[in-house]
Amino acid sequence: MRDRVPPTDELPLTALRYAAGELPPAEAAAFEVRLAHDQEARDALGEAIRLSAAALDRPTPAPDPLVREVVREALRPTVLSWLFPRRPYRGHPLAWAGLGGTVAAGLTALGVWLGDQPDDRTGPPEVVDVAPPANPDVGVPAGIQLVKSPDTPAPPDGAPSRNDRSASAADPAAEPESPGRAVASDAEGKPERIAPAPPVESKPTLQSDPGTK
Amino acid sequence: MTHELTDAELLTRFRAGHDAALGRLFERYEGPVFRFLFGVLRDHHQAEDALQETFVQALRKADAIDPATFRGWLYTVAYQQGMLQKRRARRRPAAAEPGVLVGVAADAGPDAERADDLRAVTELLAELPAAQREVIRLRVYDGLRFREVAERVGCPLNTALARMHDGLKKLRALWEARHA
Predict the structure, then answer these.
(1) For chain B, which has fewer Cβ within 10 Å, the N-terminal or C-terminal residue?
(2) Cα–Cα distance for residue pair B24/B17, rounded to 1 Å
(3) How far apart are CA A109 and CA A115, in angstroms?
(4) Which among A13, A22, A77 has CB closest to B158?
(5) Range list of H helices, chain B
(6) What does the pLDDT look like over A128-166, one tens digit per residue?
(7) Which of residues 32-61 of A touch B (CB under 8 A)?
(8) Which of B38, B121, B147 is nearest residue A55 as measured by Cβ atoms?
């Protein structure tokens, strides 16, 4: 006779006690929690059952063969399964969710980055509208002089120009009428048109003052 | 030499409508999963019901699972079905929950047949070391609980359990050799 040292791995013993219904309730509950995910514990429990049968000179417990037939019948294709065929496995749904989340995060980051970029468009604007001062002689920077085309008569006071818009005509303070076009001057002080002005009547034109050069 | 198909191959064939693949999956997993369920439920008929529902549920969703993890998936479904059956059984007032050895004994058939079984087991038990034989005899035939067996023999509980486990393993090997 040989007395045996208890094994360090207690899983088969715990499984045996659980299968025999001899684990205290708390330990049985803990073992059932383990059974939910631990394949070794599941196998140990099945093995405990297989070994127990030997003590009674019985074959291992097995299900009735009719179980297979019932399962086959339940899995037989139906009209519904024909109408809605099964989709092949294309990866775990969590993997797809993760991929979608990554793409969404990337697009969001790209959008934020693009939104933070400074406006790098350079160069002078082609046409600059200058609001007329209330007093034509006041508020014009030095070197710039308001001139009027000599060939166009000034409109009578209070008469709206052709470019008047109804809104600005109704409320002149809201959006003053553009009195003319900005014209830059070249090195000799000669006015240089940087954009073709639309035909306007009696529009004062900004010109540089040659005397200030 | 025939190539043993993997779970993934069998599952792929099952999805394609090969009925033989279902048979192979049954042969591979019906017994182990049933024993697992029997251990959880300790009732033959409940274990059969749970097994049936396990295969139906698991194979109906076969397209949504990774074929490489079929075994784990099957046991997870079995665990859920086993726990479901267990909760139902608890709601039934007359439900009994015998120990597994008692449960196996209850399946052993009529008294005359059981007497023959016990005689055969006694012959097999004689081939075991005395310490293991004593523990098995006290637990299975005298109906003592493991803790009571340990007290009777005068050893720690885990020692009694280890003797029981090892004794059953040897007994199983002897039984299979005799019935091979």
Answers:
(1) N
(2) 13
(3) 10
(4) A13
(5) 7-15, 19-41, 44-60, 70-91, 100-106, 111-125, 130-136, 146-153, 157-179
(6) 566 666 565 555 555 555 555 555 555 555 444 444 444
(7) 32, 35-37, 39, 42-43, 45-61
(8) B121
Inspect the interface and report whether the beta carbons of B15 and A86 lie closer than 8 Å: yes
Check if the beta carbon of residue A130 is closer than 8 Å to that of residue A182: yes
**CA A59, B143, A40, B15 torsion-angle sign:** positive
Residues 148-177 of A with CB under 8 A from B: none
> Where are the alpha helices (H) located in chain A, listed in sequence order?
11-19, 25-35, 39-54, 66-75, 79-83, 93-116, 166-170
Residue A71 clears pLDDT 60, i.e. is over it:
yes
- Rounded to an integer, what distance in angstroms lies between the CA atom of residue A205 and that of residue A208? 10
The total of other beta-carbon atoms located within 10 Å of residue A84's CB is 9
Interface test with A, best of B46, B66, B153, B165 (most A CBs within 10 A): B165
Identify which has the larger pLDDT, A161 or A32. Answer: A32
As a whole number of Å, the CA-based R_g of chain B is 20
**ipTM of the shown complex:** 0.82
Q: Which two tokens stand for residue B139?
A: 């637990």
